[in-house]
Amino acid sequence: MAENTFLLEVVTPERIALSDEVQFVVAPSVVGELGLLKNHAPIVAGLRIGVLRYTMPDGEVRHMAISGGLMENIDNEAKVLAETAEHGREIDLLRAKAAKDRAERRLAERQDQISYVRAQMALLRAIARIRASEMDQ
């Protein structure tokens, strides 16, 4: 482990999306962006749908779309538990834009409350995927 790095793991029910040494992490917490460096105080935070960004030891900044979840940091090990997590470079941008358009159409229709909430969540996920993809270009 390099002198100024710590372990970041991003885990979903399907896979370990990331397990690597990083210099810095910014997570979309439910109360705003949460930044972590090495030796950060222990913390547990709720995460919202958004973009997780992290800096690799070589200085490269990478992005990952996550669908909310939890983040825990203890003893220089940050763990993110999310329903889904996609690296920005793996996202199909055209598909994400189509999902955004679909969600916006459903929001405009506003058939019932359940469909409306589902469309809002789909829109937030699509926007996060688009942002992560465009940031990693």
Description of the molecule:
By secondary structure, this protein is α+β, with helices and mostly antiparallel strands. It has two domains: 6-88, ATP Synthase, domain 1 (Sandwich), CATH 2.60.15.10; 91-135, ATP synthase delta/epsilon subunit, C-terminal domain (Single alpha-helices involved in coiled-coils or other helix-helix interfaces), CATH 1.20.5. It is built from two helices and eight strands; from the N terminus they run E-E-E-E-E-E-E-E-H-H. The radius of gyration is 16 Å and the shape is elongated. The model has no long low-confidence stretch (mean pLDDT 94).
Termini Cα gap: 28 Å
Percent range of helical residues: 25-40%
The first-level CATH class of the largest domain is given as Mainly Beta
Number of helices: 2
CATH superfamily of the largest domain: F0F1 ATP synthase delta/epsilon subunit, N-terminal
Judged by helices, strands and strand pairing, the structural class is: alpha+beta
The CATH architecture classification of the largest domain is Sandwich
Major sheet summary line:
8 strands, mixed
Question: What's the structural domain tally?
Answer: 2
Mean residue pLDDT:
94
Query: Could you tell me the number of beta strands?
Result: 8
CATH topology title of the largest domain: ATP Synthase, domain 1
How much is the radius of gyration in Å?
16 Å
Shape category: elongated
N-to-C series of helices and strands? EEEEEEEEHH
Would you identify the regions where 5 or more consecutive residues have pLDDT less than 50? Answer: none
Portion of residues in beta strands equals: 35-45%
